[in-house]
Amino acid sequence: MINYIIRRFFYAIPILIGVNLLTFALFFVVNTPDDMARMNLGMKRVTPEAMEKWKHERGYDKPLVFNGGAAGSEKFTDTIFYDKSVKLFVFEFGQSDSGRDITYDIKQRMWPSLVVALPILLIGLLTNITFALLVAFFRATYIDFWGVVLCVTLMSISSLFYIIGGQYLVGKLWHLVPISGYEEGFDALKFVVLPVMVGVASGIGSGIRWYRTIFLEEMGKDYVRTARAKGLSESLVLFRHVLKNAMIPILTGVVVILPLLFMGNLVLESFFGIPGLGSYTIDAINMQDFAIVRSMVFLGSILYILGLLLTDISYTLVDPRVKLA
Fold first, then answer.
1. Of 182, 186, 194, 15, nearest to 113 (Cα)?
2. Together in a domain, 83 and 125
3. How far apart are alpha carbons 265 and 279 in whole angstroms?
């Protein structure tokens, strides 16, 4: 397994380099350093001197990827790409275009994201699996039929409807919790209850339908028919055998998104005013802050690769037949 992990680590390096190059190219195709200077200084009455000063202070006065006027290795190192992207591999995120310390912001904002995302994952997982097992238990009945209809209906509703409806009903009409905002410590509870409820509700339709499909597929296999032939009850077959053997596809979906919990929910955090990494990314995109955008894309890539590695390792824990060579 150690050799496998080392191999995956080295495979990740070209992937991260490619993600960096693609993010860099896409951003500067849309915005030149001059455009970024104008946006940050104000579109009106911006002098060339002020633009050059802004670019020089932030390192945007250099060539993008190749410096023909430099000598030796500086042709590649004395560039915007090298200054802004290579340091990411040692987790030096530097400063944003507005002058803030990105590393400090990430450390501060990851906790509000976790406070919202972790309960959504745990409660949603428990709810989805429980109701999926119930629907699968009553397969080919009216409970199964109307359960699928309800799931498809819930899947068809936009997540914005859940957000706006929850804010109006729970926050404005019933005055149970604040509509938006966030505070540290135990006071955060009253601000995260509604986002967690909305997050669970918006994913319950697709979640139940997905797990129902997994359970029904397992219930049609030979070992389930053998267990029934031995006289085991349907509930015992479902919980002892089907649920256990369905853990691999369940882990595939769960473990992959575990590292992405740190990245936050872009839409949910923005609407509820949660100062997490999701709203941090949205604000950076709106302000065209390339330093924050590239840092968040790079961090997301690392966490996603880590999630895939954890998924492969977790397979060996739930299925002894899976070996990592």
1. 182
2. no
3. 8
Q: Say what the pTM is.
A: 0.84
In sequence order, what are the residues at sequence separation of 6 or more whose Cβ sits closer than 8 angstroms to the Cβ of residue 141? none
Residue 96 structure tokens: 């944003």
CA distance 272 to 12: 35
Q: Are residues 131 and 70 in the same domain?
A: no
Could you report the per-residue pLDDT of 16-75, keeping only the tens digit for each?
888 888 888 888 877 888 888 888 777 666 788 888 888 888 888 888 888 887 888 888
Beta carbons within 8 Å of 314's beta carbon, 6+ residues apart: 251, 255
Task: Check: CB of residue 60 under 8 Å from CB of residue 37.
Answer: yes
Report long-range pairs for 10-13 (Cβ below 8 Å, ≥24 apart): 12/302, 12/305
Q: What is the pLDDT of residue 43?
A: 64
> Could you give the number of structural domains in the chain?
2
